[in-house]
């Protein structure tokens, strides 16, 4: 923190010494204008006025944001994406001028039409040339952002880069057992079995855990190896779209076959026996104990475990291309989603909506985008050959993402367009090699970008989806654990889903989808 | 055959000795009262007899059987507790039947026994009631009933009347005495109330500081207290005690001198404590021979009698006098006359009674 | 009030005087004046009462205002007052939902097991402690059994998950020694209830025993001495004296416990359950949490909560009435 304040002081000093910057073309108002903001995210629960990036933005735009965050609650639910801080804010009865949060889309799409947030379509068209230009290029994303009434109520965080997770395998174990990197699901199974039975870690005990995952839904993703689908987006158990039809992975035959095979794998011990309860420390524990063989996890963080080679002789955990499914398809179901439900919106009591939308637009200008991505020039990065390059000092000051958050950059509770080149500069070699490998094939499939409901549709969704999801997960786990046979239970399973209102749910999903993305 | 015999009984809690070797024989059918101030070891002694406390040293026999190591239930004693120890969840009949059931007495027999005892104690109408619905006196009777039904060799009473009000206490005292006369069971009774001790006991055991001060019938103890402690404990109000010095004919107390019968002649000059019972004096005018001049502080009328609180020099004294229906004549009292044969003398150092050859 | 009785002298003088005096007081001191006098005289007692009253009003009575959202289409933005009434719709939704019905059934089942096994546990523990003579041993043992109470549910769940782990857990290690295959307890519906109830006992029995130990300490020691002289052994004393003596405490605790039947400690359920064990583990409160709070359906959650409260209220009333009738012990 101390370092930060020092940087802030330096920055202020430099800003004063270069008044030209303050009077530049980015300035939105002549006299400083103060706006209140609620900003909440798991990693930065409140808005901090002395973030260097914010101070720079203040100098550039003359707009001063004041922290007005209610309930700095860090909880965000992974499954439903609700943040309690937003609910608290609404319950408190006052909405600040700007509200920025992770998982804000469903929230503003519900309460925006009720009048809590300012509709943005006209404002963008008239006052936000940079945002409008982006949407002109990506109408699909513009559609994804809109609420059921056709209005946009928030400016999203737009991630850049394609890849998120990949298949990882202990290539040193493959070598030790004289095996090749598996190219098909059959080979993958054979390799996992070899890990289980041939003692690749050489301790004489069959304690290897061939496949493990930090989040058990990653196990379900393996159904893609039998041409099934699991999660339609980076939200687990999400819907998916096939040829303009909304559907769900958990009712497909490929899913059924996949679960049947995964149950067999589980029975055989190819999957971590504790997959459902081991939790987030699974990767850390199983890799450092020289037990884990393969997983499906993020490029950057998983690649970092290769530093374990200093402790475990020959340790090499490398990305591999998705094995070909039984139908011969290589599919990587997970990807960086094109638009996040994170970002910021304008509260209905805001008296300066034009200035605010201009301020939002500022972050989509070249300077604003660079500021949001890289931090402050001279402090966090230098321009080299026209490219922003992080200073070595900054890269060395600890985990880069954390340092960026602490500077106020890469805040996903802010609507901005990410620049992937920020990440390439410090991604480890194993991850980069993996990304290169994935770039050679065309493994990614389109994401489901979500829909916005009308009040009536929302009611149907609320009434049915929770029960249906619970039932799906309940059966899914049971089948994998061997309590029941998916093949025998399948028809009854589908019948039960129908009884829980599956058709009705699909009906509202489809009507919402058609409204949002249809021509 | 003795009922209960204690010889050299010692009780110590670790290094702290609270009963220092007691010798006492309670004859069969005798009613013995242990009396003394709180902390004198009387309750501890009783609890050792009951078997609720271990005996550190010495021998305890009940009906000539040594019972030091015998469990309470096999000593054939029954105990009545200060707070009655009635089971609040059981009715009167079940309370009395408790010990019998534990001993697996046949049901029919239990029934008749309880009916008999309830009749004796006047509890028959209350057999179905719980203790909470009884008066203090009734509870006390149930507690005794519970002891009586057992037909024990020895009754032990641990201050059984101290939770009752004064009127009930007098009533129950008489009842206990009658019961003892009727049942004739060896009884050891602990109290701190000397009136109870005097009225109930065949023999009284006065205890102090874990030792027996004196054993005897109530009148023996009253008439011939063995020491100043016993003298000060028994009697209501207790005996007045004054420092004095023997002369050829009596004792000099402050400036005054009272006459004493007997052979004091040879002991002139000896320091003594002079004991005078409050009721043994007659009122007189000043100047009479063998009269003790007093200055009167207060007259407390009790009805037929009155208590006179007075002073002689440093000593505070209490005397009893007849009122004859009026206390006005008592206000002018300036001296008391002490009959010379009723004056008690105690050694000034040891407190023991002096017998100078009467 | 002049009638024959008075004339006949049936009313004693004293009584008449009292009446006259009271009548006079009624005239001079009005009700409010007397109330004022009362407060002036006893204000310290009311001052002591005040924090509790404030607590009740702020945390229990004021929130009752929000109960109405169970009958409304509630929007946080519109607020409680401005959301439209929709009658019993949320309750219809609830009872049309199989999972809610299942959650109710699970709640009652788990509570029943909790009552059956969890309620006697602290009593038995207290009775056992009461029999322990060695002071140091007793103190140490008590501290050890109290400890789990002070551990947060998150840690407890971690301990349970570790203990029942199929690969490293102590339970499965033991099962392995006996020559059986490891069991993945926490994913099997039939194991959830025993593990949950057992965990609850392990966590709370020790602390719960304190109230019973206190009750036992309140038993007049001379009852035991009397029983000793009467020839009772320790077992008989426990059954015939200790247990009957603490029976009122037991009943009161039981009534309170019955009032909490719908309140299965749902943090622990959430931490221990899995989709594969929903079948036996999903209770009303976890259902409310998933469907209501996580999905922002506060109105539906309020309806479920209200249902819970009504059931609990009826149960407590019933238990209290039965207890008062049959054992003369009751909460009120």
TrEMBL record, chain A:
Keywords: Signal. Residues 1-22 form the signal peptide. InterPro entries: Bact_solute-bd_prot1 (IPR050490). PANTHER family: ABC TRANSPORTER SOLUTE BINDING PROTEIN-SUGAR TRANSPORT, ARABINOSE-BINDING PROTEIN-RELATED. This is Carbohydrate ABC transporter substrate-binding protein (CUT1 family).
UniProtKB/TrEMBL annotation, chain B:
The keyword Lipid biosynthesis does not apply. Gene3D superfamilies: 2.40.50.100, Nucleic acid-binding proteins, P-loop containing nucleotide triphosphate hydrolases. CDD domains: ABC_MalK_N (cd03301). Residues 4-234 form the ABC transporter domain. Keywords: ATP-binding, Nucleotide-binding, Transport. It comes from the Bacteria. One of its GO terms (cellular component) is ATP-binding cassette (ABC) transporter complex, substrate-binding subunit-containing. One of its GO terms (biological process) is carbohydrate transport. GO terms for molecular function: ABC-type transporter activity; ATP binding; ATP hydrolysis activity. Belongs to the ABC transporter superfamily. This is Carbohydrate ABC transporter ATP-binding protein (CUT1 family).
TrEMBL record, chain C:
CDD domains: TM_PBP2. Keywords: Cell membrane, Membrane, Transmembrane, Transmembrane helix, Transport. It is found in: Cell membrane. It is a multi-pass membrane protein. The chain crosses the membrane at residues 43-61, 110-129, 150-180, 200-220, 241-259, 300-322. InterPro entries: MetI-like (IPR000515), MetI-like_sf (IPR035906), UgpAE/MalFG_permease (IPR050809). GO terms for cellular component: plasma membrane. GO terms for biological process: transmembrane transport. Residues 104-319 form the ABC transmembrane type-1 domain. Belongs to the binding-protein-dependent transport system permease family. This is Carbohydrate ABC transporter membrane protein 1 (CUT1 family). It comes from Yoonia maricola.
């Amino acid at each position: 923190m101390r370092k930060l304040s020092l940087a802030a002081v330096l920055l202020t000093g430099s800003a004063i010494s270069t008044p030209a910057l303050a009077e530049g073309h980015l300035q939105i108002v002549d006299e400083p204008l103060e706006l209140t903001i609620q900003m909440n995210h798991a990693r930065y629960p409140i808005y901090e006025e002395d973030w260097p990036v914010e101070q720079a933005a203040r100098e550039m735009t003359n707009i001063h944001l004041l922290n007005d965050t209610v309930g700095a609650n860090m909880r965000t639910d992974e499954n439903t994406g609700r943040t309690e801080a937003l609910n608290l804010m609404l319950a408190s009865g006052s909405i600040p001028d700007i509200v920025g949060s992770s998982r804000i889309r469903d929230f503003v799409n519900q309460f925006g039409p009720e009048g809590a947030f300012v509709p943005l379509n006209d404002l963008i068209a008239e006052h936000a040339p940079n945002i409008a230009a982006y949407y002109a290029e990506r109408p699909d994303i513009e559609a994804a952002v809109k609420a059921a009434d056709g209005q946009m109520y928030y400016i999203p965080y737009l991630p850049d880069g394609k890849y998120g997770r990949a298949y990882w395998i202990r290539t040193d174990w493959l070598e030790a057992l004289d095996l090749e990197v598996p190219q098909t699901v059959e080979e993958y199974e054979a390799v996992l079995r070899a890990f289980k039975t041939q003692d690749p870690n050489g301790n004489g005990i069959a304690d290897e855990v061939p496949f493990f995952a930090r989040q058990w839904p990653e196990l379900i993703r393996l159904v893609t190896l039998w041409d099934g689908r699991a999660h339609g987006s980076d939200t687990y158990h999400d819907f998916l779209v096939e040829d303009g039809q909304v559907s769900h992975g958990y009712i497909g035959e490929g899913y059924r076959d996949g679960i049947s095979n995964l149950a067999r794998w589980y029975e055989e011990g190819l999957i971590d026996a504790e997959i459902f309860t081991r939790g987030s420390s699974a990767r850390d524990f199983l890799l450092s104990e020289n037990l884990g063989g393969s997983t499906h996890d993020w490029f950057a963080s998983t690649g970092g475990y290769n530093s374990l080679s200093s402790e475990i002789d020959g340790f090499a955990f490398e990305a591999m291309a998705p094995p070909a499914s039984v139908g011969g398809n290589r599919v990587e179901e997970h990807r960086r989603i094109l638009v996040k439900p994170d970002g910021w919106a304008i509260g209905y009591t805001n008296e300066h909506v034009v200035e605010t939308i201009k301020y939002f637009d500022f972050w989509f200008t070249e300077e604003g985008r660079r500021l949001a991505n890289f931090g402050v020039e001279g402090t966090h990065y230098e321009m080299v050959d026209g490219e922003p390059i992080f200073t070595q000092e900054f890269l060395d000051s600890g985990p880069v993402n954390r340092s960026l958050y602490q500077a106020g950059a890469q805040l996903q509770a802010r609507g901005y367009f990410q620049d992937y080149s920020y990440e390439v500069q410090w991604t480890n070699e194993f991850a980069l090699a993996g990304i290169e490998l994935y770039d050679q094939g065309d493994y990614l499939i389109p994401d489901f970008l979500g829909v916005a409901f009308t009040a009536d549709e929302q009611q149907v969704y609320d009434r049915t989806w929770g029960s249906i999801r619970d039932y799906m997960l309940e059966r899914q786990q049971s089948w994998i654990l061997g309590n029941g046979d998916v093949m025998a239970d399948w028809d009854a399973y589908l019948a039960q889903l129908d009884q829980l209102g599956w058709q009705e749910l699909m009906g509202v999903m489809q009507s919402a989808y058609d409204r949002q993305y249809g021509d | 055959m003795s009922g209960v015999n204690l010889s050299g009984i010692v009780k110590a809690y670790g290094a702290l000795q609270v009963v220092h070797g007691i010798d006492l024989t309670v004859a069969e059918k005798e009613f013995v009262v242990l009396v003394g101030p709180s902390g004198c070891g009387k309750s501890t002694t009783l609890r050792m007899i009951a078997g609720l406390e271990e005996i550190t040293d010495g021998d305890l026999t009940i009906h000539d059987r040594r019972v030091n190591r015998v469990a309470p239930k096999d000593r054939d004693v029954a105990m009545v507790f200060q707070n009655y120890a009635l089971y609040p969840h059981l009715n009167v009949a079940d309370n009395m039947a408790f010990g019998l059931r534990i001993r697996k007495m046949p049901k029919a027999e239990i029934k008749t026994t309880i009916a008999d005892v309830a009749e004796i104690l006047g509890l028959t109408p209350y057999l179905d009631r719980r203790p909470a619905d009884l008066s203090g006196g009734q509870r006390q009777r149930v507690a005794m009933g519970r002891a009586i039904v057992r037909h024990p060799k020895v009754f032990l009473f641990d201050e059984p009347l101290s939770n009752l009000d004064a009127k009930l206490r007098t009533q129950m005292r008489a009842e206990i005495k009658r019961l003892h006369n009727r049942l004739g069971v060896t009884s050891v009774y602990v109290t701190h109330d000397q009136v109870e001790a005097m009225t109930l006991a065949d023999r009284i055991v006065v205890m102090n500081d874990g030792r027996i001060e004196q054993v005897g019938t109530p009148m023996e103890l009253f008439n011939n207290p063995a020491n100043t402690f016993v003298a000060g404990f028994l009697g209501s109000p207790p005996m007045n005690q004054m420092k004095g010095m023997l002369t050829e004919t009596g004792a000099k107390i402050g400036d005054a001198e009272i006459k004493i019968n007997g052979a004091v002649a040879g002991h002139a000059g000896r320091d003594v404590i002079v004991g005078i019972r409050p009721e043994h004096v007659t009122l007189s005018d000043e100047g009479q021979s063998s009269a003790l001049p007093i200055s009167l502080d207060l007259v407390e009328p009790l009805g037929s009698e009155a208590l006179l609180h007075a002073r002689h020099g440093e000593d505070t004294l209490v005397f009893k006098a007849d009122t004859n229906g009026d206390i006005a004549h008592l206000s002018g009292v300036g001296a008391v006359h002490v009959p010379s044969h009723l004056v008690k003398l105690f050694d000034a150092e040891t407190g023991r009674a002096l017998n100078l050859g009467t | 009030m002049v009638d024959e009785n008075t004339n006949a002298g049936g009313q004693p003088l004293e009584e008449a005087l009292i009446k006259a005096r009271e009548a006079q007081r009624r005239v001079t001191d009005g009700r409010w004046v007397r109330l004022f006098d009362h407060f002036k005289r006893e204000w310290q007692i009311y001052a002591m009462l005040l924090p509790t009253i404030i607590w009740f009003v702020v945390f229990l009575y004021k929130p009752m205002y929000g109960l109405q959202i169970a009958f409304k289409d509630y929007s946080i933005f519109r607020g409680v007052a401005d959301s439209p009434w929709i009658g019993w719709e949320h309750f219809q939704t609830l009872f049309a939902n199989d999972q809610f019905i299942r959650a109710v059934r699970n709640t009652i089942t788990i509570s029943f097991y909790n009552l059956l096994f969890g309620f006697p546990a602290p009593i038995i523990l207290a009775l056992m402690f009461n029999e322990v003579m060695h002071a140091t041993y007793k103190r140490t043992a008590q501290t050890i059994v109290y400890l789990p109470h002070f551990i947060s549910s998150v840690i407890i769940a971690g301990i349970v998950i570790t203990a029942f782990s199929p690969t490293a857990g102590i339970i499965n290690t033991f099962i392995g020694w006996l020559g059986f295959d490891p069991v993945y307890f926490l994913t099997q519906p039939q194991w959830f209830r025993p593990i949950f109830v057992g965990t609850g006992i392990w966590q709370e029995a020790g602390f719960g025993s304190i109230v019973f130990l206190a009750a036992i300490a309140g038993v007049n020691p001379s009852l035991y001495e009397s029983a000793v002289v009467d020839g009772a052994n320790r077992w008989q004393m426990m059954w015939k004296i200790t247990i009957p003596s603490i029976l009122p405490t037991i009943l009161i605790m039981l009534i309170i416990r019955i009032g909490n039947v719908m309140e299965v400690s749902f943090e622990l359920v959430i931490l221990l359950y899995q989709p594969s064990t929903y079948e036996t583990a999903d209770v009303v409160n976890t259902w409310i949490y998933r469907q209501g709070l996580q999905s922002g359906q506060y109105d539906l959650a309020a309806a479920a909560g209200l249902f819970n409260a009504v059931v609990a209220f009826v149960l407590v009333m019933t238990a209290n009435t039965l207890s008062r009738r049959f054992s003369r012990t009751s909460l009120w």
